[in-house]
Write a structure and sequence with these properties.
Spore Coat Polysaccharide Biosynthesis Protein SpsA, Chain A, 2 domains, seven-stranded mixed beta sheet, 7 helices, 13 strands, 39% helix, globular
Length: 253
């Protein structure tokens, strides 16, 4: 068994994949799990020495579990196509995997949104559990989006960040939050949540306060205010869609 597999999930990531993989030439295996891209993603990945597995995406939790099953390393480090690993992060990862514990590591992220490094509202440091011992990790099937690692053991925190080139345009941010609201409503339905009338008003207000005040979204000026308002709005949309699911008897089969 090799020490470290670097894993990237893709679908039509032609714009990002080359730069992402060029920054990942320091592992023992480079694995790309591709959801049948129709652009040049696969060819670009293969040119950079990646082993490409094609597998249809049902949800992100299941796709990451599939990647864990295909990786050959004792350790797996997940990187998204729109993220970049620095040499400092690479050196830190190679160092910590020489230990037998902890079973995983949280990695800080710096989110770049519309060309700006966002410092508040939870955007930075945006810790993600991405480095894990393969035999001790799996993903929660009840969290198909914003997936959650179920780790058999403790997790530590790395110091060096991934850089996440998150959204280039406001329209992209809105479209993704709209999609996430639907997925979140369906996940909450499966977990037994139900919407009460006050949720439609109070939850967005709580989310705005959490993002803008508690997590200091105000540090990012007008853009920070706008993004906090949108995140609060789509939290309300998720509750509205959860209410509609209850009326319909659940998601469509």
């Amino acid at each position: 068994m090799i020490d470290l597999s670097l894993v990237v999930l893709t679908r039509n990531e032609e714009r990002h994949i080359a730069a992402c993989l060029d920054a990942l030439q320091w592992g023992d295996e480079l694995l790309v799990v591709d959801d049948f891209s129709t652009d040049g993603t696969v060819a670009l990945a293969q040119e950079r020495g990646a082993r490409v597995m094609r597998h249809q995406l049902v949800n992100f939790a299941a796709q990451r579990d599939y990647a864990l099953s295909q990786a050959q390393g004792r350790w797996v480090f997940f990187v998204d196509a729109d993220e970049r690993a620095t040499p400092e992060l690479a050196a830190e990862v190679r160092q910590v995997i020489q230990q037998d514990a902890p079973a995983g590591w949280w990695v800080p992220r710096r989110n770049i949104i519309m060309g700006r490094w966002m410092r508040g509202a939870g955007w930075s440091p945006d810790y993600q559990l991405r480095l894990m011992q393969r035999a001790q990790a799996r993903y929660d099937p009840d969290r198909p989006v914003h997936e959650l690692v179920l780790l058999d053991g403790e997790a530590g925190h790395l110091q060096n960040p991934l850089t996440h080139y998150n959204y280039d345009r406001l329209s992209e941010f809105i479209a993704r939050q709209n999609r996430y609201a639907t997925l979140e409503a369906e996940a909450r339905w499966r977990q037994g949540w139900r919407t009460r009338p006050h949720n439609l008003i109070l939850q967005p207000l709580r989310e705005f306060h959490r993002r803008y005040v508690t997590l200091q979204g105000y540090q990012d000026g007008g853009l920070g205010l706008l993004l906090c308002l949108l995140l609060a709005y789509y939290d309300g949309v998720a509750y509205w869609r959860l209410w509609r699911l209850a009326r319909a008897g659940g998601p469509p089969a």
